[in-house]
Amino acid sequence: MPLALLALAIGAFGIGTTEFVIMGLLPEVAADFGVSIPTAGFLVTGYALGVMFGAPIMTALGTRVSRKRMLMLLMGLFIVGNLLSSVAPVLAVMLIGRVVASLAHGAFFGIGSVVAADLVAPDKRAGAIAMMFTGLTVANVVGVPLGTLLGQSAGWRVTFAVVAALGVIGLAGVAKLVPDMPKVEGVRLRHELAAFRNVQVLLAMMMTVLGFGGVFAAITYIAPMMTHVTGFADGSVTWLLVLFGLGMVGGNLVGGRFADRALMPMLYVSLGALALVLALFTLTAHNKIAACVTIVLIGALGFAAVPPLQKRVLDQAHSAPTLASAMNIGAFNLGNALSAWLGGLVIAAGLGYTAPNWVGAALAAAALVLALLSAALERRADAPSVVVAGSEPAEQKTGVPH
User: Residue 47: which CATH number?
Assistant: First the structure.
């Protein structure tokens, strides 16, 4: 794998840390600002919405500069947002900082996915994308647990200051290791927008929203669930997040490997199993050992779907993939926002801290249905038209581009 993938993984590590560390620190942040945990959950929702809306805006703004320069600018924005979060005097200011940092997220992963895929042979594209996303998953094994531990001992503000420092390292890595790849000539914003006329691109993004939303429905509220329901001490949240991160790392690498061989079957297995495991989490959350196993499986199954979903979008929007790629990252975070909101609703309704698991199971099951529908439509589009005896041959249907 090219060394430039390491630089992309470094940037992904910093972004992954700031995205997920807030979940382990929700009780501390809520207590510091004097708000409820569901209210503090808006820091998750706000970040996710910022990624969703920021992805197309930042990508569109970056169509006139090289991909390397745009990646560097995005890391600079990430640094500013996390510094603002670290010094926020009230929740509203921290929310602004989270949104500023989130504006870099979608475009970085979207543009980075295209760069990663262009660095390798066509039959290794999903693996290259998975290598970049490894930074995101390793963040959940190293960055998030350490950030949670640091936040619980020295204060959550210190955590976000350290995350800003990670952004500086990521910026240096991109500047040093990513080749200066010029922007593609002849591809304009209208070409990028044309990809969204492809129903398969839209279906892939909807699968992303629902599938990854299933993961976040449970994980957003993992701290109160594990402490109030399972009976873990507050300090245990750190290593529980390590388990989730280990599952993410393994699932991401497996998903990248098999997506290059059998993309749609990989999606069927990961989404179907994810729906089942999330439903079972409502029961296993009451037992410490079973809860630990379930957390690992949620991380593994959720991220096993990430490389195939990202590659699916790149394949279907192959002629102008940058905006579609970034929008799919936004779709991940739309799922995060939707599930965090729905999870907060069921908790606020008095259904308990395990209720979001049912929300997640329903979302993942819906993603599986869309995957089956997408494959059926693709088979129908690729099938030859039936020629009726004595008539002119029917016009050959146009297949979905690969």
Answer: 1.20.1250.20
